[in-house]
Automatic annotation (TrEMBL):
InterPro entries associated with the record: DNA/RNA_pol_sf, DNA_pol_Y-fam_little_finger, SulA_CellDiv_inhibitor, UmuC
Entry GO MF terms: damaged DNA binding
Domain of life (superkingdom): Bacteria
Protein name: DNA-directed DNA polymerase
EC supergroup of this enzyme: transferase
Length: 483
């Protein structure tokens, strides 16, 4: 069997199976040449997108071994097993478990265990792999071919013409000469291979701050038992967080099925959660609102609870009758509504430091808004006095036709939505200039007025443009209505 793809306007082999490799077919060979040698070929067309999806699923599956998993596209994965090996006995047992499980799923992989990601990648791709002993790692790296450096083809050809064939042949050369001839990238890759340069991997998921899990001797099928395990894991998670004087703002529950499927359920809260009862109630609420209900299938062999985002906790002030404050009840309601309806549908108004009225408030998800957000009353007004600005504004402001005695004065009457309003009282103007650092060149200064008509209705209107400056055709708009 061969896999083909269109490369350089020709169909070429991108992968071959074991039989095809033994018969002399190789990666990069033209399909016409392969057919000339063998009439019967099982041909499959390459699908990089499906390969990427499969690699993502394998990465999710590998989370059962470590939370630090990185993609090494197009065909590889890098796992940081630091601190995780004791869960499986030793390094050999862990690697054997990975190979065994993937073999039962119809996949054959090659792996290598080394002291750093670059060395492990090179051993897995350009050698038989295996568990590389620390005292033998340098010697094994010296025997790797130049291809393991992943350098440009032109540099690779130049090194081979100079009689260099292995990594060891290059490592003994002076660094200055290598940098001058081939650039700093070659030296950087050499240093990364031998661990002289610290290049940590980039995990595809945020590494949890605190993590607890249960590994089942037999796959767990009953959902009632799953809830009991979640309750037990919540107790253990919060016990660890209490020792750190922290509460969880985001918790992720992971369910690893025996058939390799992984389900993740995320819980976000507007305040640090420190109690099992609160988290368990939110988890049950989230499970009940899933469009694709959680299905145990062949059973869960691992259930994990991880605190992804944490925050320092503070003592909650209780009232004299031992009831929580009203803000605590509101926060609980916000959390439940956000889980049931989605965080993008439960919003909270957050003040913005700007003097432009329509930008003074920003709507953000309520669970993400800071609890210490304060609001300053505009222009020195006081909450006990009548408001100087309406609470709700028109977006955008609506155009009105205005009649006035003097061009720069307040309007005497205006027409809005085909209804005429005669003004008996006007206050202003309040002049607001555009934000020159973000406005376009055509933005004009506004003069705002608080108006009251003969029927007692109060409006907030502004004139865009100033006659005294010679602005072309100043216009009037109604921006809001007072209650």
């Amino acid at each position: 069997m061969v896999v083909v793809d269109k490369l350089a306007n020709a169909l070429r082999l991108t992968a071959v199976d074991e039989k095809a490799a033994k018969a002399g077919l190789y990666k990069g060979m033209a399909l016409t040449d392969a057919r000339a040698q063998f009439e019967r070929l099982d041909i499959a067309f390459a699908s990089p997108r499906k390969d990427a999806v499969l690699l993502e699923k394998l990465a999710d599956w590998c989370d059962r071994y470590t939370p630090i998993v990185a993609l090494d596209e197009p065909h590889g994965l890098i796992l940081d097993l630091t601190g995780c090996i004791h869960l499986f006995g030793d390094e050999n047992s862990l690697v054997q478990d990975i190979h065994k499980r993937l073999f039962h799923s119809g996949m054959i992989v090659r792996s290598a265990l080394a002291s750093n990601p670059a060395a492990a990648r090179a051993f897995a791709r350009h050698s038989p792999g295996g568990n590389i002993a620390m005292n033998d790692e340098t010697h094994r790296l010296y025997t790797l071919p130049l291809l393991s450096l992943d350098i440009e083809e032109t540099h690779l050809a130049s090194l081979k013409r100079a009689g260099l064939r292995s990594v060891g042949d290059i490592d003994v050369l002076p660094r200055a000469a290598l940098t001058a001839r081939f650039g700093a990238s070659l030296v950087d890759r050499l240093d990364a291979l031998f661990g002289r340069q610290d290049k940590p991997i980039t995990p595809r998921r945020i590494v949890p701050v605190c993590l607890v899990e249960r590994r089942m001797a037999e796959p767990l099928v009953a959902m009632e038992s799953v809830e009991q395990i979640l309750l037990s894991l919540s107790d253990e998670l919060f016990h660890r967080l209490q020792q750190r004087v922290e509460g969880a703002r985001e918790v992720e529950a992971c369910f690893f099925r025996a058939d390799g499927d992984v389900r993740r359920i995320s819980i976000q809260t507007g305040r640090p959660v420190t109690e099992t009862r609160t988290l368990f109630r939110l988890l049950k609420e989230r499970l009940s609102t899933l469009s694709d209900p959680l299905d145990a299938g062949y059973g869960f062999d691992i259930i994990r609870l991880a605190a992804v985002l944490v925050e320092r906790t503070q003592a909650i002030q209780r009232s004299l009758d031992n009831r929580t404050q009203e803000t605590e009840e509101i926060n609980t309601l916000v959390d439940r509504l956000s889980i049931r309806l989605g965080s993008s549908r439960v919003l909270r108004a957050v003040p913005v430091d700007t003097h432009i009225p329509e930008r003074a408030v920003l709507m953000e998800p309520a669970i993400k808004a800071k609890s210490d957000t304060s609001f300053e009353w505009p222009l020195g007004s006081h909450p006990d006095n009548p408001p100087e600005r309406p609470i709700r504004l028109f977006q955008p402001a609506e155009r009105i036709e205005v009649t006035f005695e003097v061009p720069d004065a307040a309007p005497a009457r205006f027409v809005w939505r085909r209804v005429q309003h005669i003004i008996v009282l006007a206050e202003g103007p309040e002049r607001i200039a555009p934000e020159w650092w973000r406005e376009h060149a055509g933005a004009l200064t506004r003069d705002y007025y608080r108006l009251e008509d003969n029927k007692g209705r109060r409006f907030w209107a502004f004139r865009e443009g100033l006659y005294e400056r010679g602005d072309p055709a100043p216009r009037w708009f109604l921006h809001g209505i007072f209650a």
